[in-house]
Amino acid sequence: MKWRKSAAVAAAALTAAGVLAGCGSSDSDSGSGSGSGGKVDLSYWLWDANQQPGYQKCAEAFTAANPNISVTVKQYGWDDYWSSITTGLVSGTAPDVFTNHASYFPTFVDKHQILPIDDEKVDLSAYQAGLPELWVGTDGKRYGLPKDNGLVGLYANDGLLKDAGKTAADLANLTWNPTDGGTFEQLIAHLTVDKAGKRGDQPGFDKGKVAVYGLGLNGAGDGSGETIWAQYALSNGWQYYSGSTSKPVFNYNDPKFTDTLKWFKGLSDKGFMPSLKVASSGIGMQASYGAGKYAMTTDGVWSAKSYFELKDVKTTIAPLPTGPAGRQSTTNALGDAVTATTKHPAEAKKLLVFLGGKDCQSIVAKEGVVLPAITSAIEEAKATFKTNGIDIQPFLEPKTSIEPVVPQWADAMAIFKPAMEAFLNGQTQADSFVGVNDQINALYK
Amino acid sequence: MTLTSTARRLRRPMIRERRRETWYAIAFVAPAAIGFLVFYLFPAIRGVWLSFTNYDLFSSGEFVGGANYAQIVDDKVFWNALLVTAEYVVINIGLQTAVALLMAVLMQRLAKSLVIRGILLVPYMVSGVVVALLWQWLLDYQIGIVNNALDFVGLPRQSFFGDPALAIVTVALINVWKSMGYTALLLFAGLQAIPKDVYEAAAIDGASEAKAFWRVSLPLLRPVLALVLIVSLIGSFQIFDTIAVTTKGGPVNATRVIYYYIYDLAFNRYDFGYASAIALVLFVILLGITLIQLRITRANKSDLA
């Protein structure tokens, strides 16, 4: 998920050409020294500062239940986090347990850097359908438990809706298709306003001088298209790939995908959505939305809290539009992992199961930051969001597809991302994805 | 007592003295030498070795011969990265040196106030990441002050970071803004070192202010100018932070400079072997450029001597 987008990137500059690969590979002391008298101190890392308070409480609850095990929770920014984890795994200073991300997971399994938890007893039916499969490796073993449910919804600016004579009820049953965009596109057009005050669906609308875009754009995204184009492609009956997770055959050459992309780019060409050039030149989608430049955005449930904290804008949440193949959303979940370098694998696995379990997820739900993956905590999360004035029911309406969790994702994305940017910038046509798809699939042969 | 025994007695303490001096010398050199060996020389040698392996951080890597170097030849992204880096360096160094030279002359002739001279240095004091974030806000397409100003005077808004034609120029200009004060200060120090009587002689011979600059200041400034060029050129090739914060190599590959590409290969794709090979190619290029520069500018000779 894209918390990293909002975080300031502060990757250290490399100073000398040769220094690059100078990390040692000696196996020194692991970060967790064991104390005397059978006491064990575990370290737990996460990158999302918003979730730290909840997991700190979980760590305390875990120690209360297991007085022999204490847990130190540490938070790092996204970029620091992953370089610390990877170099820590090599040098033996990695934490015992850490929050894992789907894009890194297959590599860690492949390189035997994390431990399977198959010997732990877990009731997988307690989780929302589909999510537990995320943390099964290409070797068929289970490495983690899903913690949240990263669903996507439609955020709309209340004031701009009212100006356009629309209410939240008009957003509840939107339809979409790749040919004319359905009632969804009609709404986007109506919410778009040029400098002269003409709306996108009125004659004389000047698409060169747009004051408010009907729909915002959050960059070109990666091959998962999360929050950007994936919900449309999926609701057009498209699927990311066929075959197994270890040997996927991607479908980026499918007309269902390319038709969706043509429609998507068409929104920019018509002036209803900013072009990629405009959208990628600045601070970000939420800042522009907060300044009243976008009437609507598609974004994840994990961003709900920050949308409702915007000072100048009141927000309504609506479900995604229904396409030819129904209402569809991507989903993704974070999960924890036990490092192979831990000195206390038994205790670390116990902690992992606790953090993904009912008691801890109930604590997390009461923080009102994310939607928990465990079904028992959903109502608590809903209630917490409600007290903050947020109705998250619309997020739960679509059917869900899990984003790809496959090996060599970074290599595939090095091919996909420039191609998507080139397409959205108008430098290539949608049929260029046939070649892109061949290149990506060649990685898995 | 014979003469020889006296001499022997005298020589002993001298040897002891010299030995002690050697120890002092080692003690003084050690901190820098250890740092150089541990943080530069050893990693550099290891980098050379890694460039012949398929090291991926998690396993020790196998020797693959020149495969990484053969891959570079056909790597379009690499050649594009070199081109983009060159484009950046030319704009950055060209403009930065010209502006800094002008500022240095102005500092010497006009702005004698310490406060003003100090203010020129402020952007350089700010961390590169902060500078990049600051300009990202200022240049935002919709809510940035620069685009609102353009709009106000009737000019079209510009997507400074999103337009492939503008992105690398924008990044280059941001870093000109950041470093010009520092470069100007170095050049200013060089100008101060030129004796006043040379200017007086030029004035007596009837040279105008412009002529004095081209015929007196510039030639006498050459050693300092050469040093500044070499240092800032190498620094310019290492452009990374601004791009990591603002464009991340995009749009498409328009700002995928060589250092960002190396970083991406190593730390996102774990292809340390290939990344090391590219780093080594970059090292050879920089070494070559520096040698040529030293030769052309004759940096080791001053016309004042």
How is this structure best described in words?
Chain A: This is Carbohydrate ABC transporter substrate-binding protein, CUT1 family. Chain A: It comes from Asanoa ishikariensis. Chain A: Residues 1-21 form the signal peptide. Chain A: Belongs to the bacterial solute-binding protein 1 family. Chain A: It is found in: Cell envelope. Chain B: The chain crosses the membrane at residues 21-42, 88-107, 119-139, 159-177, 220-240, 272-292. The complex is a heterodimer of chains A (445) and B (305). Chain A is of the alpha/beta class and 445 residues long. Chain A folds into 2 domains: 33-149 and 333-399, Periplasmic binding protein-like II (D-Maltodextrin-Binding Protein, domain 2, 3-Layer(aba) Sandwich), CATH 3.40.190; 152-331 and 408-442, 3-Layer(aba) Sandwich (D-Maltodextrin-Binding Protein, domain 2), CATH 3.40.190. Chain A contains 16 helices and 15 strands. Chain A has helices at 3-6, 52-65, 78-91, 105-110, 158-163, 182-191, 230-235, 255-269, 276-279, 285-290, 304-308, 345-356, 358-367, 378-387, 409-424, 432-442; strands at 40-46, 69-75, 97-100, 114-115, 152-157, 193-194, 210-215, 241-243, 248-250, 294-300, 315-318, 322-323, 326-331, 335-339, 399-402. In chain A, a hairpin with a 4-residue loop joins strand 8 and strand 9 (248-250). In chain A, helix 13 packs parallel to helix 14 (378-387) and helix 15 (409-424) runs antiparallel to helix 16 (432-442). The radius of gyration of chain A is 23 Å and the shape is globular. With 305 residues, chain B is mostly helical. Chain B has a single domain (76-297), classed as Orthogonal Bundle (MetI-like fold). Chain B has 13 helices and no strands. Chain B has helices at 3-50, 67-74, 76-109, 114-119, 122-125, 128-138, 145-152, 167-192, 196-204, 209-237, 241-245, 258-268, 272-297. Chain B is globular, with a radius of gyration of 26 Å. Chain B starts with a helix and ends in an 8-residue tail after the last helix.
